[in-house]
Amino acid sequence: MTRAAQTSLAWLAPRIAAIPTTPLSLPPILSSLARADAMAEGDQVGIGGWVSTKHGLAWFAEAHSMEEIRAFWPFLTKDAQKYIACFETLAQLALAMTAKSHHGHTRLSLCLPTESDNTPTEGGVNKLFTTSWPLSEFLSLVASWSSANGVTIQVSHIAGAHNEWADDLSRGRLQAFAHRSRDRFRVSLEMLASASAKASWSSKVVNLLHRSVGSSTCTTMPLVHALDALLESLLPRCGPDVDFQGPLPYLLVALASTDMLDFRKTGEGKKYFRLKAAAAKKARVDSAREKYLGKDDAPKPPPAAPGAYQVFVQEKRPTLQSAGKNLGEVAKEMSQMWGNYSEEDRKPYEQRAAELKAEYEDKMKEYKQSEAYKKFERARNAIFKKPKAKKEAKAKTAKKPKKAKQTKPKAKAKAKAKGKAKAKARGRGKKQASASDSDVMGSDSDSDSDSSSSDSD
Asked: How far apart are CA 283 and CA 286, in angstroms?
């Protein structure tokens, strides 16, 4: 643990011990029925929804242009339909504001059950987590407003066909609520954009933590509530708009940084950051595809070639439908017919499917030879850092002569050393041989002298 983290813990420990403990429990669920929806077509955006409680009914309906929306969120530069999940999240935030004002002022925490027909909004608002941008910007508004007002939004999915009233309100069709004009709640863009400005002191600290750690996701509600309890006990007179410049946020930053470093070393942390990096690369590839291949004048890829069974269905479906059967009966009968076919009966359809596949491959080759696709492929290779084979071959050939130049002097030096060692060994061998020969000759002369002396005697 770093010295900053140890100092932070020493500073926080006695203060945390003084906080009375309370059992963790979910806030009470508000008995209500609430639904919201959003519309995005061309340059127009609309949000609408309604909530019904024991106090009565309240509803909202607002329409804005993309020019008005970009005044608060200038990074929304594309067509409105590209950001439908963001506008659905804004509709859920507006619905929570409507329910809060309709339910009355209370300091009790509440859980507001709502319904939406947009799956990314449902998952994002419930978890307050996403790796998608700019949806994370709008989820941060929801998290900040929920923490400041003590309202937890719990979104469940509803089919679009059953969300007619909210859909009518988002499209400006107010006939069903014309007689309830007094119950209309006006939600301006200023109110929605200032949700983070009205956040609690701890929410601002959490945002500072995430900016310092480098996380692009929203925080979770338990962390925000825990910091609320801590900071309200330490600083009871600080309001929601207090400007914090003291040491506490930076001590918390040190703790969060230490925890993040430890988290990166765990298996879950490695998996999280690996998936996050893969999602970031996928988002970059999608943006490159949209840039080079998503334009109106860009070439379109050929449709995929059908298989043998699909060719069979295209041939038999008109005759079966003409008999007055519905789609389910037609599909069931065609599957039975195909199952009863022998291999010889299926050969014509397989041959036709092979011909269509060859035509598809030829068209796909032409499509990949287009200039727009080549630009997209270069951008994709740059994202994944996959060098081409030609560059690798050139790099290998360029490295080979360098290795040869470096190894030649070493080889020559080794050869010279070996030669010198051999020469020394030969010299030593000759000296030893001459010495042994002299010893042998000396012994022979001695024996001769002895024999001569014995003869004389």
From this structure: 5
| SS3 state at 113 | strand
For residue 92, which amino acid is it?
Q
> What does the angle CA 187 – CA 147 – CA 166 come to, to the nearest 5 degrees?
35
Helix then strand then coil, in percent of the chain rounded to 5, is 65, 10, 25
**Nearest C-alpha neighbor of 187 from the set 81, 98, 102, 67:** 98
Six token digits for residue 135 = 């949806």
For residue 265, the number of C-alpha atoms closer than 13 Å in the C-beta half-sphere is: 5
Question: Which residues make Cβ contacts (< 8 Å) with residue 209, sequence separation at least 6?
Answer: 219, 252, 253, 256
For residue 91, what pLDDT is reported?
95
Are 139 and 92 in contact by the 8 Å Cβ rule? The answer is no
Asked if residues 35 and 54 have their Cβ atoms less than 8 Å apart, the reply is no
**Tokens 């469940």 belong to which residue?**
156
d(CA 29, CA 123) in angstroms, rounded, equals: 19
Return the DSSP state at 184: B
The per-residue pLDDT for 238 is 43
Better-predicted residue by pLDDT, 360 or 408 = 360
Terminal Cα-to-Cα distance of the chain (whole angstroms) = 107
Sign for the pseudo-dihedral over CA of 96, 100, 101, 102: positive
- Percent of the chain's residues with pLDDT above 90: 22
Neighbours of 174 (CB within 10 A): 15
- Of the candidates 43, 81, 82, the residue with the CA atom closest to the CA atom of residue 64: 43
Q: Where along the chain do its domains lie?
A: 3-17+27-265, 308-381
Distance CA(404)–CA(284), nearest Å, equals 42
The pair phi, psi for residue 125, each rounded to 5°, is -70, -35
Distance CA 408, CA 416 (A): 12
Considering the domain 3-17+27-265, what is its CATH architecture?
Answer: 2-Layer Sandwich (3.30)
Residue pair 209/226 in contact by the 8 Å Cβ criterion:
no
Answering whether pTM is above 0.70, one says no
What angle do the packed helices 308-321 and 343-368 form, to 10 degrees? 110
> What digits encode the pLDDT tens for the residues 317-343?
888 777 777 777 888 888 888 989 998
In angstroms, the CA 417 to CA 421 distance is 6
> Considering only CA atoms, which of 200, 193, 197, 253 is closest in space to residue 224?
200
Whether cis (ω within 30° of 0) applies to the bond prior to 134 is yes
- Which helix (H) or strand (E) segment holds residue 100: the answer is helix 84-103
Rounded distance, CA 78 to CA 290, Å? 11
